[in-house]
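User: Please run a holo structure prediction.
Assistant: Happy to. Please share the sequence and the ligand.
User: Here you go; the ligand is magnesium ion.
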Amino acid sequence: MATKSTATSAGSSRGSKRPLKAPAKAAAPSKKAAPSTKIFSGLPKELLLQMHDLMVKSRVLEERLIKIYRAGESYFWIGGPGEEAWGVPLGLLGKKGQGLQHDWWHLHYRCTPTLIALGMEMIDSIRLMMNKVTDPSTGGRNFSNHYCFPQWNVAPVTSPIEVQYPIACGTAHAQKRVKGGGISIVSGGDAGTAEGDFASCLIWSSRQGQELPVLITVQNNRWGISTSYHGQHGESQIADRAKAFGIRSIVVNGNDPVESYLKIQEQMDYIRKTGKPAFIESMVSRLYGHSSASGANRVEGEVDALMDFEKKLLKSGVLKEAAAKEIWAKYEAEGIAAAEQARGEGVPTAESVWDNVYVGSENADWRKF
Amino acid sequence: MANMAQAIRMALHYGESEMGVKDIFGQDVGAPLGGVFTATQGLKNAWNTPLDERGIIGVAMGIAMAGDRCVAEIQFCDYIFNTIDLLKIAGNTLWCTNGQIQLPMVVMTPVGAGIRGSVYHSHSVDSWASRLAGWKVVMPSNPLDAYGLLLSAIEDPNPVLYLKPKALMRVRGEDLIPGEPESEKDLKAMIDAPIGDRSKWKARWPELSKYQVPIGQGKITREGDRMTVVSYGRHLLLCNEVADKLREEGIAVEVIDLRSIYPYDWQMISASVRKTGRVLFVNEDTEVTNFAEHLAYRTTQELFYELMAKPRVLAGKHLPGIGLHASLEDASVPQKHEIEQQIRECLAEVP
Ligand SMILES: Cc1ncc(C[n+]2csc(CCOP(=O)(O)OP(=O)(O)O)c2C)c(N)n1
Ligand SMILES: [Mg+2]
């Protein structure tokens, strides 16, 4: 286990290719590294720094998106500041790539941290935010955070809440029949679990003898726009619902990247080994409210997982003050430059509305049949 | 001659053995029943789903997204309505991703009245479906077309809604499906599941070959120069019958089996209307905001000066349901005598 500060990942803007395995037990730490291994459950320093780096990148990006909205350069913002401590480890742990051997991602509109961990460049999120023709996810057709990256099996994020849950069962079904197939990972909010599609996922993934390799996750920020958790839920934890289907189910503190990493890893290992579903309810923060429709202002009283993590890293000596500053500054500059570049890029043309209604842009306009 | 249920079954067999269809699924689609209309009996990749229509469509989307071919069934189109936003998403996925994610999936569902199915086994969905941009929508009127359209639907890289006129599932056609044995008895012995214990039964499939009806291509089923009648599915047969009757009186009515609702064969319609100057559109979905209204609208827009009479639409009544009693059902969806009356009225119109 690396005990010396390598600080390499602080400068890396890309997600790792292979997830670093957390040791089963914390290895006997050297004197120097003692604080970090204890506080951080034995996760390698390199990984801690990598997670911090990606969390900062994601946060800076989301705050840049909000600024773009405020500047009137975009119509709408929705995103995931506050979910970095959950989303970054999730992205790092996935088997990244295209095709059935790799994991499929069925995400919702708060998953920038996961995309950053997968290796998305800031500018591609900004292009989406600014509805540029260069936006690789939608070509300027959809809202911020509505990502689609086929090269990493990232299914298109759609606005209707919860529909991704049964779709995830479909990709999992296809993965299951392939030897060495990946798993399907699905995410959504707490309030959305009231939709029938959430129940569909529990039912379809847990049929006896026909279980599906799905990691079912819910990011519980205790709100659905203005509907409070207690305004909707009789169950004390959403995770309890999965238990009724015999699904291995846990609640994690999604504001703790270390706990998130270890628990996600555990659940993923279980799915990969057994081919059966697993469930995680992760408790997260909503730092800027629901969306720009509610102002996108910083909300007081929510745990800021990134700042807490950074404090711990600084206190334990894993991260140095100067290095931290450098990381923030680097991404701040990258965000500004990316926005500047995107600003100058083209927009979709009016004629292009007919493109890609059907495969190969086969004529979709009845006037031309 | 195969009936439509057997034709669909053979197409699905061809699909799973030759075209890479890995999943054929829906409620009661797998063994032992093989579908409430027996259209999925004996298929190796057919399986039963939970009774969850949204789950069925969602899973089909996932399978297609992952790159596999599948055919999903909604047991009756009356129960497809709670999936409509998933259908919308399936239709907009390619567009929303700017061409990146294809969903080559087929959803088939029995439609229409004609079997005394009462309120929840008589709905139609063709007009609703015509508003699902990104989907192709087809409906056969005979077994050979049922076979050929299904193979085209399976091959198509887009989502295709395949509407099965439920009243025609036991109706036989006039043409053999390529590879089908001459004798109905032989076919039955080969591919119909036996009554009683089926646990050891296996279908013996004939050597089928590929036969496709291109999506978007209609077919003239009766030639004529006095008037054009455009329909599809169950009502196409009624239109044919009326045309045959009128022919005995020396009135040659041209009947078009549209076969595809979207994209539809406008070239065929417009060529025919240019020739006849009169047109009636017939289907059984409800009449307000009916797909035929779009066709009639287009006819007035593009062919106004060719018309000898106003374009007509004969569709189901704008009612919340179709009542069980025969007098109620018959008053709700177009009947043969109404088709005839509409044609005669249209022919009598003097510009
Ligand atoms: C099917 C559907 N209904 C309503 C909405 C409008 N809507 C968007 S987000 C949202 C709240 C979702 O809350 P939750 O699932 O907790 O996710 P969060 O936004 O808190 O992350 C609602 C009602 C929608 N997008 N889709
Ligand atoms: Mg919420």
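Residues 39-291+299-342 of chain A form a domain with the Rossmann fold fold (CATH 3.40.50.970).
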